[in-house]
Hints:
By secondary structure, chain A is mostly helical. Chain A is built from 20 helices and two strands.
Amino acid sequence: MTRKRKGRPLTIDDERDRDQATIALVNSILDKKPVDIAQLRKVSAVKGLVNNELRRRVWPVLLGIDGTEIPHSDYLQWAGGTHRDSSVIEVDVQRSLWSYTADWTEERRDAKRKELKDLLTAAVCSYSGDVYYYQGLHDIASVLLFVVGEQSALRLLRRLVICHLRDCTRPSLDAVLELLGLLLPVLREVDRPLHDHIQATGVPPFFSLSWYITWFAHNLVRLGDAARLFDLFLGSHPIMPIYAAAAVLVAFRERILECEDDPAQMHHLLSNLPPLGALSGDELARRAAAISQQCPPKQLLRNRHMRPVMATAAEAYQKNGIFHVPDQPRAPKGIGGQAALGNLANFVMPGGRKVQKRPVALLSAASAATLLAAMLGMYFANVHSNMGI
Amino acid sequence: MASGGSVSPLAKYKLVFLGDQSVGKTSIITRFMYDKFDNTYQATIGIDFLSKTMYLEDRTVRLQLWDTAGQERFRSLIPSYIRDSSVAVVVYDVSNRQSFLNTARWIEEVRTERGSDVIVVLVGNKTDLVDKRQVSIEEGDAKAREFNVMFIETSAKAGFNIKALFRKIAAALPGMESLSAARTEDLVDVNLSAAASQSRAGTASSASTCAC
């Protein structure tokens, strides 16, 4: 593979030298105790972890997982369990792994699918109902399974579903939709004309749903590309995929700017952009990291007066260098929920469409969800009135 | 404007595809769009959009197709798309009884959003799975009558009745009332297969094809 660089293209020898240097650097970080997690996260994000052998060692460290194995009896019990989405896992797994197993026999592919099904079932059942399976988690689990193997993948996945992916594994998708509302504000910080163009079409941010909830794995064909992006995401703030999404949009800015002013066509264009069609995995990871430094999550929320009321990923915090995500959203502060409600309008609809405030007492989790649905409805009403249908 | 006054803008109609996971929504759309069936398809995440121009006998229409994820939790995305669609295509898998039972919920959701101001088509897909069939064509037809919606069985994999499905929809679109059932047989977009030609486009609740 050749990667374009300013100046001359990187030769195979250059790449080999660079990779060897990265491996040596990572080894030196891992050998020094206590491990400098911040440095490890930086190297993973910016340089990538080169090969799966290194990933097997580093990925658990990035998530703060120690070396303790999960007892096999526990694994068997969880994997043999059933839950509300067992049938969904069944059909998702049946139609999975095509791209990673192109030259495999049917038997070998089926055996891998069985592992994937066990892995997903075990991760969900191990939380006794608190963690919901969603279509797309199987894409993330596939990458973990292929890169680190079944046992290690289970430990990583069990951590992710209550940490980076916590908002995805809630009973409904509303928290994730709220998070997607961050994408255009991020884009606004780095490419105002592109932001204005997309916003003018009124397209809702749902085109980025699969990017966010599958960490782009659903949209990538090659395992190596997905693994490279996982090097970034596993060591980063949980909303890093939003920054990566912004980087993808910027990479395709010319094509997007040419798109006609129609939300449906824009949705089609954006949701079908090949995330690595214009950039290598390395470049995308580096650009995403750079954008996240330009407007870090806290600053973004503060500058745009946004306050998520259902999602918690944006409010992730570090403890001993490891990211943690609050399990539940904080209760609104101040005078009941008025402030939060006003901000929710901005959060979901960065365009600043007005939302009627409701009595304080109505702000329960349920009413917030209903309100979000209602606002999305309003949003659509606006969108579609522009579509001339 | 110059001399192009006789060119009327293309009429656009929006169709939303609903139904449980893995019943074949994406496959039906792919067969219609590209006349192919992808053996290595994967789950749809979120919402996908495609559009296709259909050339009918006396007019041309643009069909905008919204493909949706089947899992329950994605449903919070969907009402807005239903609200803005002229047509809801509710799909089940004839080899999966649960997916058939769940169509009632999908149809009710459409009625809740749109009342009777919408065309609803119930589609029993995967008729190629002859040995695994769990829902008979009579049951599908009975349910369609019960809900007063159109009905057809299809196989996206075999290419069976897919064109017929879209001809049936096209004939029922608002503004298409002048086209009689007989004339819809002449829609030029399609080469009628023997099986497809047995379809009767037309009024709501009409039973249509056999699964031969």
